[in-house]
Amino acid sequence: MAYKIITSQCTVCGACEFECPNAAITLKNDLYVINPKKCTECAGHFDMAQCAAVCPVPNTCVPA
Amino acid sequence: MAQLVGLETLMPAGAQDMRAALDGQGCSSSSCGSSSGPSDMPAEIWEKVKDHPCYSEEAHHYFARMHVAVAPACNIQCNYCNRKYDCANESRPGVVSEKLTPVQARRKVISVANEVPQLSVLGIAGPGDACYDWRKTRETFELISADIPDIKLCLSTNGLMLPDRVDEIERMNIDHVTITINMVDPEIGTKIYPWIFYQNRRWTGLDASKILHERQMLGLEMLTARGILTKINSVMIPGVNDQHLMEVNRVVKGKGAFLHNIMPLISDPAHGTHYGLTGQRGPRAMELKALQDKLSDGTKLMRHCRQCRADAVGLLGEDRGQEFTMDLVADEVEYDPTKRETYREVVAEERGQHVAARQKVDVALASVDADEAMLVAVATKGGGRINQHFGHAKEFQIYEVSPAGVTFVGHRKAEQYCEGGWGEDATLDGVIAALEGVRVILCAKIGDCPRESLSAAGIEATDAFAHDWIEAGISGWYAREHASYARQIA
What we know:
The structure holds two protein chains of two kinds.
Chain A (H helix, E strand, L loop, with lengths): L2 E3 L9 H5 L5 E4 L2 E4 L15 H5 L6 E3 L1
Antiparallel strand pairs in A: 1-4, 2-3
Chain B lengths: L14 H8 L20 H7 L14 E4 L8 E2 L24 H14 L3 E6 L9 H14 L4 E6 L4 H10 L4 E5 L5 H4 L5 E4 L2 E4 H21 L3 E8 L8 H10 L4 E6 L9 H5 L6 H11 L5 E2 L10 E2 L23 H29 L7 E5 L16 E8 L2 E9 L4 E2 L2 E2 L1 H10 L3 E5 L5 H9 L3 E3 L7 H12 L9
Parallel strand pairs in B: 1-3, 3-4, 4-5, 5-8, 8-9, 9-10, 12-17, 17-18
Antiparallel strand pairs in B: 1-11, 2-6, 6-7, 12-13, 13-14, 15-16
Helix pairs in contact in B: 1-11, 3-4, 5-7, 11-14
Organism (chain B): Gluconacetobacter azotocaptans
Family (chain B): Belongs to the radical SAM superfamily. NifB family.
Protein name (chain B): FeMo cofactor biosynthesis protein NifB
C-alpha cells in the first residue's frame, strides 16, 4: 500500500514533499521519489493522498 | 540635443558617464496618469514606490527588478497555466525556468547587483506560489537582505495562503505584495479555477472559488491594515471575466489596493493550457485599452506591466536573465554596493529636472488649439528617451497625447523587424497589426522601405524627434500636426 511518482510527468515542483505527512518523499538526483516503506497513502492522517491531491499534473502521483 | 544611450549601456561606467548618459536639457521622462510622481500621492507612499519599476511607471525607466525562481510549488490550478512550462502569465512559453535553491538565489542576486546598477527590487513570483512555497521564499529573502539591506523585497501570490503569511511579511519588511485576483464572484471563478488545494484537501467547483475568494479578500484587508502596498493583478479573459473586472476593480479599490493591473490573457495551444487547448482567445490591444480607460477614472491603474518571467532580470521590457544563469555565476560572491549607490545619486538629480521639464510640456500642450486625443508609439531603450531604431524594437511604448497632456497608456509587443540588416515584410504586417489605433511611430531611425509600407497602412513613422525625451518628442509631433501651435517646447 503505497503511492509512486511517474517521473516522466513530474515537474519537480516539490509540493508533494512538504505535504506528505510521513516524510516519505525526497529528492534524489533531481527527481522526487516516494519511499514505499514510509508511504501509508495518508491513511489515518487525511481523507485523500496528499501528494495526489496537490500534484499539478493529472495521474502523476498514483497508487503503485 | 541629448544623448544616445540606453541605460543598459551604463553598466561599467562611473558617475560622470552615468550622468552624461541620463542628462538632457528640456523635458521630462514619462508621465503615467496614475503612478507618475510625487504629486499624486502622500510622501511616505512615494518614498516606498519611487524606485520600484512595477509600482511606479516613472521608476520603470530607471530601475530594474529581478525575480528569482525559488518557489516552484503551487496550490491552485488556473486554466491559463500549465505547470509543465511554468505559469504562462509569469513566463514566456516553452522556456522552463532554472529553478534555484535559496543559496543559489543569493549568489545570483549578488552577482546581478554587482553588475546592474539599476537593480532596486528583488521579487519572488513563483514560478509556483511564493506564499505556498513559503519556506523557500522566506529563506531567500532572509539570506539576501542580510547582504543587501536596501534591496526592496516583493512577492506575488494567488492569495490562498497569504493570510497565514502576513505577520512574517510585515516582520521581514516586504512592503510590496501582488495578489492575482481574477474575480470577486465565485461563479465566475469556476470558469477560471478547476481546483485548489487547501487544508489538506483538493476542492473543486464553486467550493474552490469561494474559498479562494474569501482568502484573497482577507489577505488584501490584512495587508492594507498594516500599510503594506498591495497591487492587484487581473488576467483579462474575454467572455469570462472581461466585463466583471469593473466590479473587481471597485471591490479591490474599496479594500485599499494601491494599484490595479489588468493583464491580457496569454493563450496559445502550444502552451498546453486549458484555455490554449480549448481556443479561449486573449484580448486585442484595443480591447485591453478600452477596459483600462473605463477603469482609469479615479483609480491607480498600472499600464506598463510586461508580464515578465519568474526569473526575469533587468529593466522592464528587457530580460538579461540569460547573462546570469547559474553556470555563469561565481561560486563565491561578495556584494559591492558602489555602482548601485552611484547610480541612485545620479537618478535622484535627474528626476528633479524631469519634474520641472514635464510641467513645461503640460503648459505648452494646454495651449494647443485641438481636442483630438492621438495614440503615439515610441521605440525606446529606456532612460525616458526616443532612442531605439525602429527595426530593433521588440516592443513599443504607447502614449496618448491631447491638450490635457501626454499619458502613458501601455506597451505593445511586436516581432523585431530587422534581423541582421534584413527586414521581413511578413514581420512588418505583424507590427502594423500590433499598432492598431496608433497614428505615428517615433523612433531613433527608420529605413525608407518600412516607412513607406507603414505610411501605406496609415501609420506615420519618423525619426525627426530622435533622442528627444519622450514627452518632448510627442508634444513636438502633436504640435506639428496642429499647426496653430507654436513650437514652444523645442
